[in-house]
Amino acid sequence: MSKYSVIGKRVHRVDGPEKVTGSAKYTFDIVLHNMLYGKILRSPYPHARIVNIDTSQAERLIGVKAVVTGKDTLGRKQSTWRRFPELCDEEILCRTKVRYIGDPVAAVAAIDEDTAEEALDLIEVEYELLPAVFDPMEAIKEEAPQIHEGVELNINVTRHIEWGDVDEAFKQCDYIREDHFKCSSQAHVCMETHCAVASFGYDSKLTIWTSTQSSYYIQALVADMLGLREGDVRVIKPHTGGGFGSKFELDSAQFCASLLSMKLCQPVKIVLSREEEFTATKRRTPMYYSVKLGAKKDGTMLAKEVRVITEGGAYTGMGATALYLTGFFSSFPYKYPNYRYDGYRAYTNTAPASAMRGFGAPQSTFVGESQIDMLAEDLGIDPIEIRRKNGMTPDYEVPGQAHIQSCGLHQCLDKIDEHIKERGELPPNRGIGVSAYGFMSGGIFNWFDTPYAFSAAIVRINIDGKVDLFTGACDIGQGSDTTLSMICAEELGVHLDDIRIHAADTGICPADLGAWGSRETLMNGNAVKMAAADAKRQLLEFAAAKLGANIVYDMDIKDQWVHMVDRPERGLSYFDIVKDTIRGRDGETIIGRGHYTPHRKGMISPAYSFGVQAAEVEVDTETGKYKLINVTTAHESGTVINPVGIEGQLEGAVMMAGGYGFCEDQPMDEGKILNPSIADYKLIRSLDMPETKILEVDTYEPEGPFGAKEAGEGLTNPTAGAIGNAVYKAVGVRINDLPITPEKVLKALKEKKQQAE
Amino acid sequence: MKKELRFTVNGQPYELYIKPKTILVEVLRAHLGLTGTKRGCDSSSCGACTVILNGMAVKSCSVLALQANGGEVLTVEGLAKGNELHPLQKAFLDHGAFQCGFCTSGMLMSSKALLDENPNPTKEQIKEGIDGNICRCTGYNSIIRALTGVVKGEYKEEK
Amino acid sequence: MLIEGKFTLRAPIQEVWDFLLAPGTLASCIPGAEKVEAIDDKTYESVVKQKVGPISVRLKFTTTLTDIDPPRHLKAIGRGADIGKAGIFTQETTVDLTKISKDEVEVSYSSNVSITGRLATFGERIMRAKAKTAGEEFTKNLQEKLKSRTAG
Amino acid sequence: MIRDFEYLTPKTLEEALTLLDKYGDECKVIAGGQSLLILMKQGLVAPEYLIDIKGITELNYIKSDAKEGLRIGALTPHRAIEKSPVVRNGFAVLAEMENRLASIQTRNWGTIGGNLCHGDPAGDPAPVLIALNANLKMASLKGERTTAIEDFFLDYFETALEPGELLTEIQVPVVPPHTGTVYIKFNVIESDLATVGVAVSITLGSSEGICQDVRIALGAAASTPVRAKQAEAVLRGKKITDNLLREAGQIASTEAEPISDIYASEEYRRELVKVLVKRVSREALARAKQA
Question: How far apart are the first and last CA of chain C?
């Protein structure tokens, strides 16, 4: 028998049949009896005081059932960083002041969407315009307008990380270079826009169906904002059309639909338009980097000093996490003996900048991997070699921060080295760029201040052997329902189709922090494995008695066969044991429970994945346009639970992270996003997509379920840097501000030519 | 002011009275309850609403429903025959050619239109065939592999 | 979006200044301005009609003179909302006069135009093109008015 | 939100023109609607009456004969042009251009006439048709008239169509012998609108390879699709060399009047015009030599 019978196999997704037949129901598809439709009025100004809102005309429009403004709220402010009251800065429905173009000021519920939209035009808002500031560098100046009361210099969050003696180390360096980078914004562009159906009934209980990455966060935040008990708020996540970091904060659709429903005792549905999705939901945090890097002649990196200012936008959201993590991951994946990071997040009058796949790590990886290539060139060292020299290894301690247990970085470097050598001599204007990366498997810091375990699961075994798995994990497309079902089946020794998963419904599932920070496989996987083991233990107790096994024999279940580990032929059918156990226990249901919170794993994460990526480009030197030809990734994520899932994560990351390097951007003018439609926001499509190749590297993570760790966001980290390095290899110009557009490449080529003349 | 719309959807004839401003995707979703077809943008850019109208892939968010009067529409709900999945659906399952699934219906309909017209497309033609559809999850390559599998005859339609 | 430029007029600086400040001079230079009405000595209201291809908008424009530093510097802020709620235009214009000689004045201007709302979504590409031509027309109008006025 | 409208479906051109005349400013015409519906959804265009002409079959055709050249009915979908054997054999550049226009879904439903009447300076068909020296036929109750396509575009999204007039036919004259025509658009994302598009048609006099005639048309390089006449003058009457091609590109880039927007700055667009005019002309020349 092979070691595993379920995990590591190429299986169909558990939600597959529904999704390929169009029968999967998303929040977007939900229609309830007596349901109303809501729309939200948003500020057209980046910074203004609300003098008066006159809703009377809108209320008189036939078909309009309710109009709410900030006055109808409890006036509370929230954020996911609720451990820190000073960071709870977002009212959602503004009461006195708007802080960006798109800030909500009123919401309408009507019999249909058209009527609701018509009503928005009838709401008269009187604004007193205030001076606004858009650039974070300007925002932190003395004379800048203050965006939040009491926040000096508009500095929202600061973060300092330091180890070793940085100043002393720089003195010992043979070579030091200092560079500046700008990392742009990026939109998540989930195919399903933010949406919610809220139903508050005469029983005073609220149910919300919503497209979310964390039903638990939404439950807790909605309850607090509306003055309800958490237990009276049930949040259900139907199938969800993508998240990528945009859907684990309380959003305007969820809040306004709930508020309107409470007022009317009728279900209210709000679906954000694509334009609202671009302008009034959160986005990737733009970052301005200054980095000083020092090394010995042989390429040993001794010290790194990083200063970052991030454009925070109007509110905190998850932007504080982005600031923390960009600081930590600026040291990745290398062993810097001396390191210093100072990060500042500035409020600006722009759409709030927050979490997007990888938090701040795609930014820090672009910066770090660009600079290490520059350093390697200056010192005359091969890019792979310098990464080998400094790269992290298993059992490495990041001083005061993290303990790295498994780490396959060096095997990944070997594989990419081989790949590049195989490609051989390239034609002119072609180049391969390399980028190494690492990422966390879920976050440790409890900024949400939850008293619950980070992950939990319940396994219930039915009389027929069918298993109901209850978990708060949120499948937003990444496939956690499948991965967790596989883990449950493997641990319990049954088949995948024996499992029925019930996920992300706070009414029936234990709390889980949700799908962010690449945490579900490791954290929820551990909880599921523990719950399954708990249920299995109950079965094995009966089996042992029935088989009359000597107590020195260990028992297990595999492939629905309950048996002695050392004498697998001696055993009983799983189905018989289930029946016997239930009968023998006075009919008590078999329930297994599991939970997981990382302990003694440092400040950041219980485990880290690593990889190296090589991007090959061909540059047209007359126009600056380049073609992404191939992206090859050597990746290690511990034991692979769901190989089809990992392929999908990796190839999808190339589309998204390649887009970050290649074309995606959110240009602004006076706080207004200039491309708020998919026609104007450029995304990689099938004709632009490069070939992708995956080189698997085996590792085993002791902290993860069956040795697994993350394989989601980390893959978004390397691509922009790999592209930048590839363009440099191809034509010798380096672009330090994202995205690397043809226009920037051409301009750099011309400057290079002029300098040569 | 409402007008009559007579057309067939997935082989079933319908007669409806609708406002002329109603776009096709709304008739399918709201009037007929066929919510498999999605809407992802307001600018005819994402392809999530793709259906086959009179044999051609169209974006049903950019066609007035009345323009389909007298026509034949095929949506994702019309692909499977009872509980027997269409070869494309099987291939999508095998190759993991979807994640969140929101673009999948449109992607399947573009794929179907492509293969109906050209049963032996090259890889470049497959890429062209789905270029009007955005997928934010998969990076397209698994979808291309799924279509390649169908083209190679690995997924036969049950007779 | 910023539109900047300068030109020279043959006229005494005070005369140019007085004309600039005269009710509605600035407001009436906005292309498509239909009627200009003075609310007080610093505020004007106007209705502006604009058309881009198939789209027509009628904007109710309020122009306020915010900085007045005679006879050298003038700042006006204009805000216009489409009557059909399609969008909101804001523009901030500064005009600086520099005396070159006794009756020669250099007029330099900069105008920052911004559009929000559905009009802006429709296409930054189109609206920007239109705003640019509208901005150019505005300054052309201003120049012509000043020239004809100061010549006469 | 689309505002309510009265929906009219004429079955003949005559009926359509009558309705157009009757409702004047209060109506809009929809064909495939691939551009108009987006504006209507935004509430930016809200006609009282919508005249749907897509069902007028008499305007959906592709005809070709040796004397008259190619005739395309205004309501012919892009995809029909792309796949038409007649077009592919005699006017390959048109099929190639259509193949790169937007997505298959849009090409299936959108029509060539609708595209031209939308008047987007970045549209693909216009530069190609200008290079091919096409004429447009328009009809109103007063009668018919024909204009050179390069005179059809007046400003951003403004065309020479008079009130009450419909575009009915695109006429492409017979391509002279030894002629090569090529269209290339530059964009970052393959299927996107052109950042700049260039179409060039070169006719060689005879075997000596003197450029007898040349037409260079630019898309997205001014407020309308335009001809780069000064650049044409560089090549006309000469034996084309690489130096001349470079010069033509250089001149065209000064002739163009592009704007800066979020996709490209004015300077970059000029640079693209320079490079593309050179490249496209070179390819057109190669085709002309083979023709």
Answer: 34
Contacts B121 to A, Cβ<8 Å: none
Domain B3-78, CATH:
3.10.20.30
In chain B, residues with a C-beta closer than 8 Å to the C-beta of A645 are 96
Query: Residue D59 has what DSSP assignment?
Result: G
The CA radius of gyration of chain A, in Å to the nearest whole number, is 27
- DSSP for A599-616 reads -SSBSS-S-EEEEEEEEE
Q: What is the pLDDT of residue C122?
A: 60
The verdict on domain B87-151 having CATH code 1.10.150.120 is yes
Gap between the Cα atoms of A673 and A668, Å rounded: 4
State the burial class of residue A35 (Cβ atoms within 10 Å of its Cβ: 0-12, 13-18, 19+).
middle
Rounded distance between C-alpha atoms, residue C3 and residue A676, angstroms? 23
Rg (chain B; Cα; Å): 16
Q: Which CATH superfamily is domain C2-151 in?
A: START domain (3.30.530.20)
Q: What is the torsion angle, in degrees rounded to the nearest 10, for the CA atoms of residue A396, residue A401, residue A407 and residue A411?
A: -80
Mean pLDDT of C95-116: 85
**Residue-wise pLDDT tens digits, A339-368:** 999 999 999 999 999 999 999 999 999 999
- Tell me the C-alpha distance between B21 and B31, whole Å: 14
D24-66 pLDDT, tens digit each: 999 999 999 999 999 899 888 899 999 999 999 999 999 999 9
Q: Which residues pair with A197 in a beta bridge?
A: A209, A269
Cβ neighbours of A680 in C, within 8 Å: 123-125
Fold of A283-445+602-756: Aldehyde Oxidoreductase; domain 4 (3.30.365)
pTM given for the model:
0.96
Query: CB burial class (10 A; 0-12, 13-18, 19+) of residue A567?
Result: exposed
Determine whether the interchain pair C112/A275 forms a contact, defined as Cβ–Cβ distance below 8 Å: no
Give the per-residue pLDDT at A1: 45
Average model confidence (pLDDT) across chain A: 97
Q: Residue A678: what residue type?
A: I
A124 touches chain C (CB under 8 A): no
ipTM exceeding cut-off 0.90 for this assembly: yes
Of the candidates A117, A687, A742, the beta carbon closest to that of D190 is on A687
Q: Which of C53, C86, C132 sits opposite D157 (nearest CB)?
A: C53
Q: Does CATH number 3.90.550.10 belong to domain D58-172?
A: no
What integer is the mean pLDDT of D69-87?
98
Q: How far away is chain A from the Cα of D196, in angstroms, using its nearest Cα?
A: 11
A173-181: average pLDDT: 98
C1 and A669 within 8 Å at the Cβ level: the answer is: yes
D1–C contact, CB cutoff 8 A = no
Report yes or no: A541 at the C interface, CB cutoff 8 Å: no
A264: tokens are 């009317």
Whether B157 has a pLDDT exceeding 90, the answer reads no
Among A570, A569, A540, CA closest to A555? A540
Tell me whether the CATH fold assigned to D58-172 matches the one assigned to D179-290.
no
Inter-chain CB proximity D39 and C122 less than 8 Å? yes
Kindly report the number of other CB atoms within 10 A of residue A589's CB atom.
11
Percent of chain A whose pLDDT exceeds 70: 100
> Does the distance separating the beta carbons of D275 and A622 come in below 8 Å?
yes
Question: Partners for D (CB, 8 Å, 3+ pairs)?
Answer: A, B, C
Query: How far does the CA of residue D38 sit from the closest CA of chain C (Å)?
Result: 8
Q: How close A623 gets to chain D, by Cα (Å)?
A: 6
Angstrom CA distances, A562 to A467, A556, C116, D52, stand at 16, 6, 67, 70
pLDDT tens for each residue of B81-107: 999 999 999 999 999 999 999 999 999
Residue C152 pLDDT: 45
C129 touches chain A (CB under 8 A): no
